[in-house]
Amino acid sequence: MIPALIYAIPAFVLLVVVEALSFRFLPDDDERGYEVRDTATSLSMGAGSQVIGVPWKAVTVVLYAALYAVSPWHLPASSGWTWLLLFFADDLAYYVFHRAHHRVRVLWASHVAHHSSVHYNLSTALRQSWTPMTTLPFWLPLALVGLPPWMILLQQSISLGYQFFLHTERVDKLWRPVELLFNTPSHHRVHHGSNNVYLDRNYGGILIVWDRLFRTFEPEGERVVYGLTKNIATYNPLRVAFHEYASAWHDVRTARRWRDRAGYLFRPPGWAPGAEG
To answer: Which residues does the UniProt record annotate as the domain Fatty acid hydroxylase (predicted)?
Structure first.
């Protein structure tokens, strides 16, 4: 099964070009803009994620279908209430997935690729993981409660399509009610910041209400410094995709106790024995 989002890729690439040209003709010294090698890496990561993601999606469909088949409920796609439930359930699943991938190192090893750029533009949205297998468990409950698999996949594509437009410095803060309820470029810039005040904040997908509810929200204030707390200084897509797996494996191999080995895998990124994560 081909993910619906793949049909939007030409439009995404075109919008990347348009945004890059906007920096050329309307430069802003306060914005990072584009850098050729960085953009090429982001596009390469996006292409690789699709090559891996399409066959993996077939596995995902089979597992969703299996859980849907054993579910005691089959919610009707013709009902508006089913779509409303799907919207909120998918967005909450995304929040849980996203938060877990920042707070558990073995999951962060997959997600870190998306945060590895020191630039922030629409091409950054395409800098995706090459190990999508870590996302699967977070959406399985949706199929188990009777949401049809094709609806789950469609809503995932809608959510990711929405999030593409969050990756820009060209849009300032929006109308206050929008900023209150929805994830916006301003909120997501915070999420990509390596400033101490911005770390592990604003995990939302379409809505920002989960962050407000679970106290992980931080408004944009001081200038955002993009990238990682320790940047990897490479444009090699293979290293971008797998460097944290290699680092985690090194820590596990050199640890002396099984307790510490588990900590290096399942505690937050940056954790070490005797230190806070």
So the answer is: 83-216
